[in-house]
Amino acid sequence: MTPRQVLVWIFFWPVLLFVAAPRWVPFMARMVLDMLTKVTVWRVAFLNLLQHRRRLMVLGSSVAFVTIIMMTLLGIAEAMNRTLVESSTTLMSGHVNVSGFYKVTAGQAAPVVTRYKNVVDVIKKTVPEHTYIVQRGRGWAKIISDSGTNKMFGLTGIDVKSETGLASVLKIKEGKIEALEKPGTIMLFEDQARDLEVKVGDGLTIQAPTPRGVNNTLDVTVVAIAQNMGMMSQFSSFINEKSLRQLYQLNDDATGALQVYMPTTDLAVLRKTQDKLREALTAGGYLMMEEDPRAFFFKFENVTREAWTGQKLDITNWKDEVNFVAWTVDLMNFLSFFIAIVFMGVVGVGIMIVMWISIRERTREIGTLRAIGMQRPMVCATFLAEGSLLGLTSTVAGAVLAVGLAAIINGANITLPPGFQFILMSDHLNVFPTVLWTVVAVGFITSVITAISLIPSAIAAQLKPVTAMQHVG
Amino acid sequence: MPNNIVSIRDVVKEYRLDKVVVPALRGVSLEVERGEFISIAGPSGSGKTTMLNLIGCVDTATRGVVEVAGQNTGTLSERQLTQLRLDTLGFIFQSFNLVAVLTVYQNVELPLLLQNKLGGAERKKRVMELLAAVGIDTHAKHRPSELSGGQRQRVAIARALVTEPSIVLADEPTANLDSATGEAIIDLMKDLNQKKGTTFIFSTHDHRVMKHADSVVRLADGKIIGKESADAAVQHALQSAVDKAPAPAAS
Fold first, then answer.
1. Which position has the higher pLDDT, B220 or A324?
2. Which helix (H) or strand (E) holds A102?
3. Exposure check for chain A: N or C terminus, fewer CB within 10 A?
């Protein structure tokens, strides 16, 4: 769920209401007009809220509480998203990637881009706004330890001297990342090292099929063990670039992927860049793969099933390459809204009851207002404005408190238990409430409260003046 | 322009309480001329409030015709009736019915804001003039809860008159006031009636209030039993009070 989708929903529900009850359209339109143009509506609503301060405090606190919960969850999701972007664009992807498969026979596929320097030239010409381009070897191999344990990992061949970003993101727990400069070296993550029962200095054997379909093996030494980075560190390991070429028996002008780093991570911008590159590479005579927004290792099965041979290029963005973990961020966003909606349901019932009480208490006032010439839509607007004001003030207060809470949580540097580290992709609890999500949370909760207030407000407006004025109690 | 501002012909009003039909007005007819200061008198349950509600367009007749300012209220939509009330009628209620959260000034200004005809400066001038006319201008920033009963009723009168309506309806305007304040309120209404020519129709069963009216319409059991001068009506009211008084106990 993106902020844009939520904002569309906020502005869309009144339209749905109009479609569902067309008979009410003129009434609603006049009511909205009154809310927009009549100061009296807001004056009466505001003064009534002030008059009942205790009620305002109780309801307002509940709404603020829901806002804090929602914004904290969204802030955690945002922190996950940032970690995801940062780690994915460091560990396994650029902002945009030009990769591909090379097939010697129809049934043998290797994640290789041949004569990559020519491709780099096309990229530089087509995307002059790029920040820098990195080439990385890619592979999927079985890693066997001396104890006989083995695991399948994604292999990334790197030239550690040119990978400045990697060193700043990874937290090395044992050994040195710079040691990857030497051929025959590998860097693992904590869990991988634990599963393979190895430490720095131990040897491993890597076994992988070459593009020609022959299995090759390579002995490597563990030179560094990095702290886990959530789910993604389960799949990635780094070896010396030359060693990867040796393993896969690749020429010097072949690589796994060209990772293009851009000034932005905005997917809308990146998709346009992808389109431009696709067009330019096609014009340059390269065969392109069908668009498939998944990590390269998920594509093997399809590619090997296809009849073509030779080179085909593939263009992806960072989100495509981490799609298999990105769902956790989407799930977190969804959970934030789901939990907020559940809480809002409970608080909403309270708000509706209080609105009923308010209407009962003010029935004679409604009758008087109707008698002296206030039209029904304006009566409705007055009560609705009260709900909106309650919602707006409480959510804004809640948002301010949530930002404060986020600052405290981030400052406290709370270490997460291992299970949470895996899901939240970080060893510490981080909460980043962005301006956009704050606006969305405030708008969403205020609109829900306004919607809840609509029913009692409409009923108040339907009261006959004579009945309302004769009301006792 | 017809001289009759209110015309009621053969009006029947019935209320349904479950399966029981309770008649409140049983075929009443009445003509009220522009500028009249008329009282509707009668005991409780005689139909005074119902008649004011029908004239005030806050309720509709079961049968018959109610014409207010030349418009047959039975043919108007809810929206048109509300507009008629806003432009043509002013209301003074027994329990004042001021908006508790608004100040005196804001209460009086409210109908003008609903009309949306005057600019800010004109509105302020009109409100302050009226507050001065009813002698409450020094309390403009007070809330109704900070005022006495008589002061609240003065605010209600100012609110009823602020749109310069053709008719002001007052339902027992002095019932919640002590006799001296009640007299003062009626004097004020009478004064405004004479100066501005506004038609006042008020219900009462108090003979001290009745005596100020140009004429008194007497109601009993939902029927008009007579329209007479204020003096005659007061005599009737006093006689009725004597008749109802318990006989002195034998010594």
1. B220
2. strand A96-103
3. C
Do residues A435 and A388 share a domain? yes
Tens-place pLDDT, residues B81-116: 999 999 999 998 888 889 988 999 999 999 999 998
The per-residue pLDDT for range A363-399, each reduced to its tens digit, is: 888 889 999 999 999 988 988 898 889 889 999 999 9
Question: Reduced to 3 states, what is the DSSP secondary structure of residue B53?
Answer: helix
User: Inter-chain contact A372–B85, Cβ cutoff 8 Å?
Assistant: yes
Nearest of A46, A150, A70, A131 to residue A342 by alpha carbon: A70
Q: What is the pLDDT of residues B109-153, one digit of tens each?
A: 999 999 988 888 999 999 998 898 888 889 999 999 999 888 998
Name which of B56, B83, B115 is nearest A371 (Cβ-Cβ). B56
Enumerate the β-bridge partners of residue A98.
A258, A315
Q: How many CB pairs under 8 A join A and B?
A: 69
| Last residue within a domain, chosen from A269, A301, A321 | A321
Q: Are A231 and A302 part of one and the same domain?
A: yes
Residue of B nearest to A30 (CA): B79
Which domains are seen in chain B, by residue range?
Answer: 4-243 (3.40.50.300)
- The Cα B84–Cα B78 span in angstroms is 10
Whether A303 and A332 map to the same domain: the answer is no
Task: Please indicate, yes or no, whether residues A185 and A253 belong to a single structural domain of this protein.
Answer: yes
Which of B58, B77, B167 has the highest number of chain A CBs within 10 A, making it the mutation to test binding with A? Answer: B58
Same domain, A100 and A243: yes
Last residue of one domain, picked from the residues A277, A299, A321: A321
Residue among B79, B91, B115 whose CB faces A371 most closely:
B91
Number of domains in chain A: 2
Nearest CA in chain A to B96: A368
Which residue among B86, B99, B111 sits closest to A44, beta carbon to beta carbon? B99
pLDDT tops 80 at residue A234: no
Local confidence band at B251 (pLDDT 50, 70, 90 cut-offs): very low
Q: What is the DSSP letter of B135?
A: T
Q: Which residues span the domain enclosing A184?
A: 95-321
Tens digit of each residue's pLDDT (9 = 90 or more) over A281-311: 999 999 999 999 888 888 888 888 899 999 9
Inspect the interface and report whether the beta carbons of A371 and B100 lie closer than 8 Å. no
A295 and A181 together in one domain: yes
Do residues A221 and A73 both lie within one domain?
no
Contact A378 B114 (CB under 8 A): yes
Closest-CA residue to B129 (of B166, B164, B97) = B164
ipTM of this model?
A: 0.87
Q: What distance in Å separates residue A51's CA from the closest CA in chain B? A: 7
Coil/strand/helix, residue B228: strand
Residue of B nearest to A366 (CA): B99
Q: Are residues A262 and A390 in the same domain?
A: no
